[in-house]
TrEMBL record, chain A:
Organism taxonomic ancestry: Eukaryota, Metazoa, Ecdysozoa, Arthropoda, Crustacea
Region (Disordered): 1-39
Oxidoreductase in keyword set: no
GO cellular-component term (any): Ino80 complex
Location of this chain's protein in the cell: Nucleus
InterPro entries xref list: INO80C/Ies6 (IPR029525), Vps72/YL1_C (IPR013272)
Skewed-composition ranges (Acidic residues): 1-10
Originating species: Petrolisthes cinctipes
First-listed, main subcellular location of the protein, grouped into a coarse class: nucleus
Name used for this protein in its record: Vps72/YL1 C-terminal domain-containing protein
Automatic annotation (TrEMBL), chain B:
Family that this chain belongs to: Belongs to the actin family. ARP5 subfamily.
Keywords: Coiled coil, DNA damage, DNA recombination, DNA repair, Nucleus, Transcription, Transcription regulation
Organism: Petrolisthes cinctipes
GO CC terms of this entry: nucleus
Region Disordered: start-end pairs: 472-491, 659-692
PANTHER family cross-referenced by the UniProt entry: ACTIN
Gene3D superfamilies: 3.30.420.40
Gene Ontology biological process terms in this record: DNA recombination; DNA repair; regulation of macromolecule metabolic process; regulation of nucleobase-containing compound metabolic process
Name listed for the protein in its UniProt record: Actin-related protein 5
């Protein structure tokens, strides 16, 4: 008798666990205010390309013809600066008149030059990266 | 005085964590009330049109967090949304945002964010039966707007949606009566300069630069990491953001101020120190005295224990002795033939009487010895202190007399190491250049190595052969090795002790406390970061800064319109709360405007929340011009009625087949807002709306 009672209890426990799990699943169900059948039309899962990023959206926009007076996202991009940018030291921010030919870092005086030369490569690259000057072409 | 000043300028970091949002109960009172969502790329602010303040303000991002990584069972992914993320740095690399720059592009992420929003507003009906007022980017692409409408109408079944532009909302809230003005909206990713004439924004003459608060934070973060590489991990993006908010300002005259920072006195006066959190090294609380006490105590206890043991042994031995002596005395009474005699021998465990006497004498001797020892112990209980260990023999003088000579030797060793280092550094620099003797020698060796024929090649037989690779190493063969560094430190510490003047300044500038090791100093950074807005070239951006763009936009108008625009230059957006930005723009305008012309610069009352307030205040009018469900079903999701706070929209001239436009596939209102089979609609045709 005792054993059967135990098994019954165990069964009940298991049932409860199952119910708990069910509840959990229900919790994970989409909230009531959502349409359960909704699917995004623009998600390109078949091509495994996901969502269009801003660049792709802009180029997509360009492929259509538009009225003459139309203003696009891309058409309000500000023009490049008309004056050359001022140069500042890469290690102190002070105005820099010199550039180290070896590391391409800018520095403002002799003491900074020695500091520039003592910098390890990763810091040098990081500093160049900071003003987007690390590319080999530029 | 000096110390007091320093404590004043030492700043702690708060490291604020986001607090999970409560679920605001939903009631019938809200029926039909418009919901205002300022959907910014940094923060999203949501509230009912009847609210005084936005109910929920959260970072517009979520993190997919894998709970049990490495386990074999399919890892459960936990989605942490917005303010549920306690520590944003822990999930920094998993963060996802619906925005790409300032435009919503990732609509699955947008869905997650809207789920979060509506869940926290406790909406319990089968659809979100409310008009929605939502902000979007200035000149938002139709494609993005279309998808947003699709999401709102078809997934959530909203009543209507009104799109407006955050900057324009802020402008009209702060300038209800001024019809003309130049709006400068500094956002998280972008900065807009929008001319407004007769209350209507002119998109054709507006300009946008890709510079915003996000860039400032990133720049500061990376810069501090490079400036203080030892604190690489302690400097996080959120801390950079906090520092940006607390310590950065915009210089009115940047060139003048930055030059002043070169002056050491100015630096000392204005530098700000930030204390990074640190864990103090486990310093034992016991003093040297206490330690000595404890050691003594332990030694004493050990001695006592030994003494007790010895005493026990002694007692045992004595008992044994008396027994043996008794036996011996008894044996003397008997002859060896008698059984008692044999019995006694057995008891004493000896073969004969002579052995017994020997044993007794041995035992006697032993007892004597133990007693002697105990006597000695009692007289010299006070043990002498163990001699302190010598840390390093090499750098301590053997005798006082040799000190001077020894110091000289240490100095020489130090100089040698420094010279070796300098030589290596020099060689490394030489190697990096092309036309130097060092690099030409290197090339010669390389070509020689390459030319070596295979046949009688016994390269590598001798260990020295391999040194050639050290010689051609670009690093100049061997870097400053660990061992050498340790030696150098040892020498320096010795020198500091015995001839402090030798090392000069380097020893005096050493930080005195552990906390000081964890401080970062803000000098030029204080003005340099904000300056990015005015000189984006510092960030490697080709576009002009705010003032250049203002000038460019003004140049698109005739003189009379220019006058109207500059009469009210209006600043809004998060980063426009940087101190000094107003006076800076005034200064720039003064420089660029004609002599004795008038202009004024104003800032928003609350640069961050004003778009939301503005949308709430004019929610009635906005709902009137919104896109209703019927409109959406008729025309698609990108059709806009132009109003002063919103974008203008243009329909593409490219004809698009009506069947493929998603708007046309939407069923009528009565059914659940589910299109039966939307996925079949080709996605590429979503962008242009059907032209009328």
């Amino acid at each position: 008798m005792v054993t059967t009672e135990e098994t019954v209890e165990e069964k009940e426990d298991k049932k409860q666990e199952k119910e708990d799990k069910k509840q959990e699943k229900e919790d994970k169900k989409p909230p009531v205010f959502k349409n359960p059948e909704f699917q995004h039309t623009a998600f390109r899962s078949s091509k495994k390309r996901g969502w269009r990023n801003l660049k792709q959206i802009i180029s997509l926009e360009r492929t259509y013809s538009w009225p003459d007076d139309c203003v696009h996202y891309s058409s309000i991009d500000a023009p490049p600066a008309f004056t050359p940018g001022k140069k500042y030291s890469d290690i102190s921010g002070l105005p820099a008149n010199y550039t180290d030919p070896l590391t391409k870092l800018r520095f403002s005086d002799a003491s900074e030059f020695y500091r520039v030369r003592d910098l390890p490569m990763d810091i040098v690259n990081g500093l160049l990266e900071l003003r987007k000057a690390s590319s080999i072409v530029g | 005085m000096n110390t007091a000043d320093e404590t004043v300028r030492l700043y702690e970091l708060r490291d604020a964590r986001s607090v999970p949002d409560p679920i605001h109960p939903y009631s019938d009172n809200f029926k039909g009330v418009p919901l205002v969502i300022d959907n910014g790329s940094y923060q999203c602010r949501v509230g009912w049109a009847t609210d005084q303040e936005p109910r929920i303000v959260f970072r517009n991002c979520y993190a997919k967090h894998r709970k049990d990584r490495g386990k074999k069972i399919a890892a459960e992914t936990e989605i942490l949304v917005a303010n549920d993320i306690g520590n944003i740095e822990a999930v920094r690399f998993q963060l996802k945002s619906p925005h790409d720059e300032n435009v919503v592009t990732h609509f699955e992420a947008q869905e997650t964010m809207l789920d979060y929003t509506f869940t926290h507003l406790d909406i319990n009906t089968s659809r979100v039966a409310h008009p929605i007022i939502m902000t979007e980017a200035f000149c938002n692409p139709n494609y993005s707007r279309q998808l947003m409408s699709e999401l709102l109408f078809e997934c959530y079944g909203v009543e209507s949606v009104s799109y407006c532009v955050d900057g324009l909302l802020s402008y009209h809230r702060n300038n209800p009566n001024t019809q003309d003005g130049l709006l400068i909206n500094v956002g998280h990713y972008t900065t807009h300069v929008v001319p407004i004439l007769d209350g209507i924004a002119d998109p054709a003459n507006s300009r946008r630069t890709r510079m915003g608060g996000q860039h400032l934070t990133r720049f500061l973060w990376r810069w501090l990491q490079l400036r203080f590489p030892q604190h690489l991990n302690a400097i996080t993006l959120s801390r950079a953001e906090e520092i940006l908010h607390a310590h950065m300002y915009i210089a009115e005259d940047y060139m003048n101020e930055i030059v002043q920072w070169g002056n050491i006195d100015y630096y000392e006066q204005y530098v700000r120190r930030i204390q990074l959190p640190f864990v103090a090294a486990p310093v034992s609380t016991v003093s040297v005295e206490q330690q000595r006490e404890r050691r003594k105590e332990a030694a004493r206890r050990l001695v006592e224990l030994n003494a007790r043991k010895r005493e026990e042994k002694l007692q045992e031995d004595e008992a044994e002795l008396t027994r043996l002596v008794e036996l011996e005395e008894a044996m003397e009474e008997f002859t060896p033939d008698e059984p008692e005699y044999q019995h006694a021998l057995e008891e004493a465990e000896v073969p004969s009487l002579s052995h017994l006497t020997k044993k007794i004498s041995l035992l006697n001797h032993k007892i004597e010895k133990t007693r002697n020892k105990m006597m000695q112990q009692n007289t010299t209980t006070e043990e002498e202190e163990p001699k302190p260990k010598r840390v390093c023999e090499a750098v301590n003088p053997q005798k006082q007399a040799d000190l001077e000579q020894w110091v000289e030797e240490v100095k020489q060793q130090w100089r040698d190491i420094q010279a070796r280092r300098a030589a290596r550094r020099h060689k490394r620099q030489e190697m990096a250049k092309r036309r130097t003797a060092a690099s030409q020698e290197r090339m010669r060796i390389i070509s020689q190595l390459a030319r070596r024929e295979k046949k009688d090649d016994n390269f590598g037989m001798r260990d020295e052969d391999w040194d050639v690779y050290k010689a051609i190493n670009k690093e100049g063969g061997g870097s400053d090795s660990e061992e050498e560094n340790e030696k150098l430190q040892e020498l320096e510490s010795a020198l500091r002790q015995h001839s402090p003047e030798f090392l000069g300044d380097s020893s005096s500038s050493k930080p005195t406390s552990l906390a000081e090791n964890y401080q970062i100093q803000l000098s030029t950074e204080q003005i340099r970061i904000g300056e990015l807005l005015f000189q984006p070239s510092m960030y490697g951006l080709e576009q002009g800064g705010i003032s250049a763009t203002i000038q460019y936009v003004l140049g698109l108008y005739d003189a009379a319109s220019q006058e109207r625009l500059v009469a009210n230059v209006f600043l809004t957006g998060g980063p426009s709360s940087l101190p000094g930005i107003k006076s800076r723009i005034k200064r720039e305008l003064l420089a660029s405007r004609p002599f004795q012309s008038h202009f004024s610069v104003n800032t928003a009352k609350c640069p961050v929340l004003d778009p939301w307030y503005g949308a709430r205040d004019s929610s009635e009018e906005l709902v009137q011009v919104g896109l209703t469900r019927a409109d959406y079903q008729e025309h698609g999701g990108d059709r806009l009625i132009h109003h002063k706070q919103g974008n203008m929209s243009w329909a593409s001239l490219t004809p698009v087949a009506i069947e493929s436009a998603p708007g046309s596939t939407v069923p009528s209102k009565e059914t659940t807002p589910a299109p039966p089979d939307l996925s079949s609609a080709p996605s590429d045709t979503n962008l242009p709306s059907t032209s009328s």
